[in-house]
Amino acid sequence: MKKFKYRGYDAQAIEQIGTLEAENYSEAYAALNYQGVTVVKLEQTQASPAQVAENFYLKLKLGGQWKAIFFRELSVMLGVMTLHDSLKTLAGAAKNHPSEKILSELVAAVGEGQTFYEALGRYEIIFGGDAIQSVQIGETSGNLQDVTARLANQLERNYSTEKKVRGAMYYPAFVLLAAFAAAVILINVTLPVFENFFAQQGGKLPFVTLILLRGGKFFAEYWLIILFATLIICAGGVVIVHKVEAVRFLLDKLRLSFKLLREVELRNFFGRLSFLLESGVTLDEAIKLCAAASKNLCVQKTLTEIKFSVERGASLSSLLAKEKFPPLYVGLIVTGEAGGELVNMLRQCESMADFEVEEILRTLPAKAELFGTLLAGLIVATLVFAVMLPILDTTTLL
After folding, report:
1. Helix (H, G, I), strand (E, B), or coil: what is residue 249?
2. 75 and 145 in contact (C-beta within 8 Å)?
3. Which DSSP category does 315 fall into?
């Protein structure tokens, strides 16, 4: 979604100034016309590279858990005080904390009459488009406290998932690093001794040993060029992924082949959809918002197609079955549609997807450990083979 700044007049000739999100200029104009605003000026807003870099650095300083804590505290405070007073209290408690600047600007923006979701939009890179979108719905429907509570739950679960995945990768990463260090020492210290000995005796090194030795010398002599070329390739790959939609779509489709990532997407989809329907949003509009909230292009395409079919009268369960959603989820949604309990069944689907994610995470450390050990073992075996062969061949040269 892109952001647009507009200026216009409503039916009472009162000037209207603000921002909105839309896919393109046509959709932005249509949204403003629907609100009864005669557009005088409409332009896309773009943050400067310096501002983007500053916000990204701020996001790193805040850490992955801060956003969940912020919405959790805000939800609690909204039960006893206004939004402005809640933000002011949080800003007062954030002295000398990286979030102090963000909270101070939110207090000022809301105090000037700006909507909360528009104020959050200044820091979209930190809060995320899906969170801002949820806040907009909650603010419009007058259900902001419940929205922030649900956001906190979702963010806490996502952070917990990411933390467990990172934790599972520590052991195999350490084992592979140790194996790589052993390889560097053997290639640069042990194997050259065999090379000198075989050269003096007029013999030839085994093929495996020769490959490792030549490869080690090549990396030692041209490591700076190799590093520079690697950085260029990585930077080019990042640019291609972000600029070429077909490549990004292919990578997003590949991600969905991993069960963990697929179940996380399902959990987020069912959670968002149940919340939107409970807030009074129509089914087709709720699916559209879910598509916009997802960062996966493949998911966006699938949900957009489902949204158009729902508008033409198709049932959600039949469309999900057509898109090969897990049968268990489809069965629950069929029951929900038939019994008028779709929201409750979607919540049940969310709970089941969350259970699947937790089960995968429970076994992930053992699988990662096994994979890391096997890969490190293969590296060590190759090194031992490369060292033992010359030792055995020395008996024929002496």
Report:
1. helix
2. yes
3. -
Residue 21 and residue 1 in contact, taking contact as beta carbons nearer than 8 Å: yes
In the prediction, which pLDDT does 345 show?
A: 92
Q: Do residues 299 and 264 touch, judged by C-beta distance below 8 A?
A: no
Which stretches of 186-315 are DSSP H helices?
A: 191-201, 207-243, 245-255, 259-278, 283-293, 297-311
Q: Which helix H or strand E contains 185, and what residues bound it?
A: helix 144-185
Rg (CA), the chain: 28
Query: Which sign, positive or negative, has the C-alpha torsion 301, 303, 307, 313?
Result: positive
pTM over 0.90: no
Strands 15-22, 2-9: pairing is antiparallel
Segment 150-165, tens digit of pLDDT: 888 888 888 888 888 8
DSSP 77-115: HHTTS-HHHHHHHHHHTTTTSTTHHHHHHHHHHHHTT--
Residues 6+ apart with CB under 8 A from 296: 252, 255, 256, 265
Among candidates 15, 18, 20, which has minimal Cα distance to 3?
A: 20
pLDDT digit string, tens, across residues 73-100: 989 998 888 888 898 898 888 888 888 8
Please give the single-letter amino acid code of residue 257.
Answer: S
Whole-angstrom distance, CA of residue 163 vs CA of residue 224: 34
CA triple 307-157-130, angle to 5 deg:
40
Q: How far is CA 150 from CA 99, 154, 254, 384, in A?
A: 21, 6, 29, 55
User: Minimal CA–CA distance to 131: which of 299, 302, 272, 300?
Assistant: 272
Which residue bears the tokens 């896919």?
A: 23
Residues 6 or more apart whose CB falls under 8 angstroms from that of 26 comprise: none
Asked if residues 307 and 287 have their Cβ atoms less than 8 Å apart, the reply is yes
Question: What pLDDT, in 10s, does the model give residues 28-41?
Answer: 767 777 778 776 66
Q: Which of 150, 152, 155, 116 is CA-nearest to residue 273?
A: 150
Burial degree of 207 (CB within 10 A; 0-12, 13-18, 19+):
exposed
Helix (H/G/I), strand (E/B), else coil: 239: helix
Looking up tokens 């488009």 gives 129
